[in-house]
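DM from R.C. (forwarded with permission)

"hey, sorry to bug you on a friday — could you get me a structure for this? deadline for the figure draft is monday and I only need the backbone to look sensible"
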Amino acid sequence: MEELLIPVVPMSTTAHIRSHRKPRRNASSIAVRAGVASGVLGTLAVATAAGSANAADATVTQTLELPTLTADLSAQVEQAAQFTQQAAANYQLQAERDSAAAAAAKEAAKDLDAAKKAEAKKKADEEARKAAAEAAVSRSETRASLSSDSGSVSTPATGSVATVIDFLKAQVGDAYVLGGTGPNAWDCSGLVQAAFKQVGVDLPRVSEDQSNFGTDVSLSNLQVGDILYWGGKGSAYHVGVFIGGGKYLDAANPSKGVVIQDLSGYPASGAVRVL
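My reply, with the result:
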């Protein structure tokens, strides 16, 4: 820090008078003050120069970096736009997939519903057919008079027909069970099939097919061992076997089981002969 030297002025002629004396300043105080003033001025100069330099640098920095920031911002905006477009495309694709899946599920539900309805209709038709057969059997029950000696029906003593009839009679009293094929429970076609199997005749399993097997015969020309059917030929819903004397043997229904009945009480629709 520089010192400021002040020249000494000779005392005036009135200096000896106390009231005319000028206050003296300490040389060191003056020097300090001068140094402080010089330092302040120097500091101000440096600060001013630094401020000017910083301002110049800031101007240059802004001028140089502004294009770079602008270019980055443009790239970011473009990237954001591309991302938005891709997101929109993904959303649209997902929406299309969801719509297609919903349509497929709806179509599958319709197909399932249609299949269920078809199955229900088939089951209802089958039940109606069985109900009709059972109703017809019930009506015949009121007209048929089965005595205790109903099983005493004249049959051939020898031959395949006798074997069939003997087998059928041995099952009288067994239960009726839909789909039953023996040995203690039968449905109508299962019993007839088992009877003819005793003599090597391989009949179809169900009534419809049994009514198409063998040779057609008229109801006025029946012989023992002829297969009787109820319903249309090829669509029969019940079968039995003629055992002579105007009677037939069949697995009638769940309430009767296997019985011998009077044909006049429940006339058959037709007959076929296989022996």
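R.C.: lifesaver. The domain at 144-273 is CATH 3.90.1720.10 (endopeptidase fold (from Nostoc punctiforme)).
me: no worries. The radius of gyration is 62 Å.
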